[in-house]
TrEMBL record:
InterPro entries: MetalloPept_cat_dom_sf, MtfA_fam, MtfA_N. This is Zinc-dependent peptidase. Signal peptide: none annotated. It comes from the Bacteria. It comes from Pseudothauera nasutitermitis. It holds the Pfam family Peptidase_M90. One of its GO terms (cellular component) is cytosol. GO terms for molecular function: aminopeptidase activity; metallopeptidase activity.
Amino acid sequence: MAGWLRRLFGREPPRREVDAATWARVEAALPFLGFLSAGERERLRAMALEFLAGKQFHGAHGFRLTDEILLGIALQACLPVLNIGLQAYRGWVGVVVYPGDFVIPRQVLDEDGVMHEYDDEVLGEAWEGGPVLVSWFGEGESPEGVNVVIHEFAHKLDMENGGVDGFPPLPAEMSRRAWADAFGEAYERFCAQVDAGEDTVIDPYGAEHPGEFFAVAAETFFLDPHGLLEAYPRVYEQLAAYFRLDPAAAGAREPQ
């Protein structure tokens, strides 16, 4: 199979499908997919291949992107949109993958009009109308409780209606007021907990901004659904309705 995914990137159609052993090997590193039914898992695999066919991947600093890395990123990126659809990721094509965390130069203008420059060490970043930048870690090297791919692609969903404010476009059957009430109350309580130095089920980084709270809550929804449901039941309820998935109710299943 080696190298066949490269044919997906607009050059020629794939000549064969991913074999079962490769899927099993890639998914073994993503245990949070265990809540999916056999049918959902097959749809996710198909969507991941479609996603790879429509995006352009680049390994930063000469990082070699193997088929397993590409499939792993695609599965995680497509999980949030499994029941939303890939149209949510339209309008941009680039995915840049770094071998671990990386540095982005920043410029900040202070209140006195003085420009400050600094290097910001990050795990990922999503650019409105532009690419998604993500870190990739080897087995056992990923920061605990963090999923940079889901986090950054949650930002892309948030950006669908402009900017990053923690309020993505909702389906017609969902209430904007209910979303705002649930997330607003949870964010205020969460920030108070972080300020008080309390342990939180959601990464404290979510206190930086409502947009970050949404992205980190999306991570937790998939990585620790029972924890999110217990700590912030109204947020969990809104995310379950938005993603049209209910990992806490589904329970863990053995990989198919």
